[in-house]
Amino acid sequence: MNKTILDAELSHLSAEGGAFIADLRSWIRNGVNRITGADQRALAERFTAWIGQDKDPSPDKAELRQWIEELDQQGREALTEQLCDFCEAFEIKLAWLVDGELAQWPELEASLEKMTLHYCLACKAAVDSDLELQKFRHRRVWKRKLKDSKAGYAGGPQATG
């Protein structure tokens, strides 16, 4: 085989091998970031900053900003994870919004911002109603047990006096 052809083939294989290794490193790094939660923490921080910088005077936005500021880091990460899952169901990335990638698409940006606001407000409402919801569930269980025990007692053997 000609040395020039062999050198060209080896050079091509070397370049492909280098690209493969770079892709593999990136894939492993991204996997580690997902497993350790580094990506989620970083997105939660960017989301919190994005919500905080919005100076929309609407009561809903102000209420949401205050609630998110009061959440601890774990709460902000959980909210961001839930929001990301919701967005991904519609093939949307939350990062597009919080990283300003939609600036050239103002109508789309406004629509996704509205969607985000409503979803987060729904999450807040669920958290706010959790205590009452727990009481309601316990009462339902108690009522069901009481009803079942009465039905069992009424259908049991009759006592004779």
Number of strands: 0
H and E string: HHHHHHH
What gap, in angstroms, lies between the N and C termini?
111 Å
Average pLDDT, all residues: 82
Q: Tell me the β content.
A: under 5%
Helix content: over 70%
Parts with pLDDT < 50 across at least 5 consecutive residues:
none
Q: Identify the overall geometry.
A: elongated
Radius of gyration: 28 Å
The secondary-structure class comes to: mainly alpha
Give your account of this protein's structure.
Helix 2 (38-53) crosses helix 4 (73-88), helix 3 (59-70) packs across helix 6 (106-128) and helix 4 crosses helix 6. The longest helix is centred in the first third of the chain and has 34 residues, at 3-36. This protein has helices spanning 3-36, 38-53, 59-70, 73-88, 94-98, 106-128, 130-154. 9% of the residues are buried. With 161 residues, it is mainly alpha-helical.
Summary tags:
single chain, 161 residues, mainly alpha, 81% helix
